[in-house]
Amino acid sequence: MALIDQHNAAVRNGLLAALPLADLARLRPKLHLVELPFNQTLYSMDDTLDTVLFPESGMVSLLATLDDGEQIEVGIAGREGLVGLPLVFGDDRSLVEARVQMEGTALRIGAAAFRDEMEQSDALRTLLLRYALAFHAQITLSAACNARHAIEQRLARWLLIAHDRIEANDFPMTHEFISMMLGVRRPGVTIAAGILQKAGLIHYARGRMAVTDRPGLEAASCECYHTARREFARLLGAGAAQHSD
Asked: Model-level pTM?
């Protein structure tokens, strides 16, 4: 990850922005702005984690890898949260791979400095634990959704999650990528995308996806998307729901 100039810009990460000014001021010198290039693996399964990333833009997928090498997305982190959650609980190993799915930037802090800040700041520690609960709600609902809901509902939900995080109506997307994210075969993705496109909710062509009817896409999604948004808002404040699962 390449360091880039911060230009003394205000933080855009939701967790950092929610900190009291004094806590953020103490933390800020330890944060370094880095690029998150598309498809970069930030850490692999069973890697030792030595940094925490607070995304400022873009989106990171957390992927479980099965014995046959197949991968499926089990969680998503954007500027509402962080990457490196095991370190919040004092562990330095991850069961999943973290891979950049939408390029962006993040504020990086080393593991030792992160632990020190958690010990010094009650506000930071409380905020991170509440985020962990919200993230747990995200993956719990994802598991239920993937088991019970129709593919087009799941696709609508995933596209809303991506739309929340990248703050753009148009973004790169392939059927192969969606197939891995949803854990379904590519023909199923093609049918589901066709249903949403025929309804005028999205436009898909040449590896790019555009959300053309956000309210309609929300109506087409299952309740899991809305339930998770409410849980993020309950635990982290109303602002977190604007760019959370």
From this structure: 0.89
**What residue has token string 């962006």?**
104
CATH architecture of 14-144: Sandwich (2.60)
B/e letters for 43-55, b = 16+ CB within 10 Å, e = fewer, are: beeeeebebbbbb
List the chain domain ranges: 14-144, 150-221
Strand order in the sheet with 32-36: 32-36, 104-110, 51-55
- pLDDT tens for the chain, residues 1 to 245: 555 444 446 899 999 999 999 999 999 999 999 999 988 999 999 999 999 999 999 999 999 998 988 888 889 999 999 999 999 999 999 999 999 988 999 999 999 999 999 999 999 999 999 999 999 999 999 889 988 899 999 999 999 988 888 777 888 888 777 887 787 888 888 899 999 999 999 998 878 889 999 999 999 999 999 999 999 999 998 655 454 54
Domain boundaries 150-221, corresponding CATH code: 1.10.10.10
**CA 172 distance to own-chain centroid:** 16
What is the signed CA dihedral for 111, 112, 118, 124, rounded to 10 degrees? -50
Cβ atoms 118, 19 nearer than 8 A: no
Compute the distance between CA of residue 51 and CA of residue 137 in angstroms, rounded to an integer.
Answer: 24
Furthest-apart CA atoms within the chain: distance in Å = 54
DSSP for residue 68: T
Question: Tokens 């593919």 label which residue?
Answer: 151
